[in-house]
Amino acid sequence: MADRILRRPEVELLTGLSRSTLYAMIAEGSFPEPLRLGRRAVGWRESVVEEWIGGRAPAGRSSIVAR
């Protein structure tokens, strides 16, 4: 099956990141760079975004160490 190309609004929804945070993380190298789709259009491979999400530390109580 072919990898879908996700545009920025969909990446924001999937990751919960705002546009400014997304681009700040790209600049610091902590989020994958987008593919250039045209002169003014970019997108991300769905598999790359899903892999990035899967590699994040779990959120919530499960990540808190009990003392």
From TrEMBL:
Organism (species) = Halovulum dunhuangense
A Pfam family (short name) is: Phage_AlpA
Coiled coil ranges (UniProt) are none
Q: What is this protein called?
A: AlpA family phage regulatory protein
